[in-house]
């Protein structure tokens, strides 16, 4: 018999005729320097997992800038999701899960592809894998916000480049001199990768290849 979702705030478990394991949940919270009491979010997330009747397999809280999307705890959570170790991820707010709408959307889509449910406890957001109507609506709104954000970034970049040109600054990647052929050949003979050759000679991997 296929797996069945039992819905409700009081209990949510994935069951089948041969598998009665509880929902495997992870809670994630990025602590902001503006947080007055991180324990409030911590307790709320754990209580939300308990209301789902879930087994808490990951409880991650880390202090880090929202400007970074490569935080160790977040990467550990995403890796567990991709390896099929999680059924649900709970966060306190969307802005604690990614540095921008673009990153939040990318992270949620990765969870969706891995069959992992995403819940933001304080914002009433519940995105289920498989794409029910409400989940599709929320993802659509996030995608629209992300596209708006992307357009703003493009516009700011264009204006910044125009201003730089007006002030006489060179725009674009700096010109890289082609490295010496003998130096490239010597490093390659030592078994160095193209990336290692480029780092040793202070050029791009493309320039190193061109000089070979």
Characteristics of this structure?
212 residues, alpha/beta, five-stranded mixed sheet, two-stranded antiparallel ribbon, disordered N terminus
Explained architecture:
The chain is α/β, with parallel strands linked by helices. The chain has two domains: 140 residues, Rossmann fold; 31 residues, no CATH class. A five-stranded mixed beta sheet has the order 4-3-5-6-7, with helices on both faces. Helix 6 crosses helix 7. The longest helix has 34 residues. It starts with a strand and ends with a helix. The relative contact order is 0.09.
Write the layout of secondary structure elements.
Layout lengths: L3 E2 L8 E2 L8 E8 L6 H14 L3 E9 L8 H11 L5 E4 L9 H13 L3 E4 L4 E3 L5 H34 L14 H9 L4 H8 L3 H7 L1
Parallel strand pairs: 3-4, 3-5, 5-6
Antiparallel strand pairs: 1-2, 6-7
Quick rundown:
With 212 residues, the protein is an alpha/beta fold. It is 45% helix and 15% strand.
* Rg result: 24 Å
What distance separates the N and C termini?
61 Å
Q: Would you report the number of β strands?
A: 7
Largest sheet, in brief, is: 5 strands, mixed
What's the structural domain tally? 2
Strand order of the main beta sheet, please?
A: 4-3-5-6-7
CATH topology of the largest domain: the name is Rossmann fold
């Amino acid at each position: 018999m296929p797996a069945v979702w039992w819905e409700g705030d009081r209990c949510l478990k994935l069951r089948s005729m041969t598998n009665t394991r509880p929902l495997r949940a992870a809670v994630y919270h990025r602590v902001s320097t503006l947080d007055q009491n991180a324990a409030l979010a911590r307790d709320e997330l754990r209580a939300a997992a308990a209301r789902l009747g879930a087994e808490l397999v990951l409880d991650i809280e880390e202090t880090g800038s929202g400007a970074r999307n490569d935080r160790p705890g977040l990467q550990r959570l995403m890796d567990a999701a991709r390896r099929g170790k999680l059924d649900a991820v709970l966060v306190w707010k969307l802005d604690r899960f990614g540095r921008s709408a673009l990153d939040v959307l990318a992270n949620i889509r990765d969870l969706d592809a891995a069959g992992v449910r995403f819940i933001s406890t304080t914002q009433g957001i519940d995105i289920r894998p498989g794409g029910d109507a409400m989940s599709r609506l929320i993802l659509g709104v996030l995608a629209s916000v992300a596209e708006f954000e992307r357009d703003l970034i493009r516009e700011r970049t264009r204006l910044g480049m125009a201003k730089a040109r007006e002030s006489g600054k060179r725009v674009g990647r700096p010109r890289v001199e082609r490295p010496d052929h003998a130096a490239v050949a010597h490093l390659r003979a030592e078994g160095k990768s193209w990336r290692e050759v480029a780092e040793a000679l202070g050029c791009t991997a493309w320039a190193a290849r061109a000089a070979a």
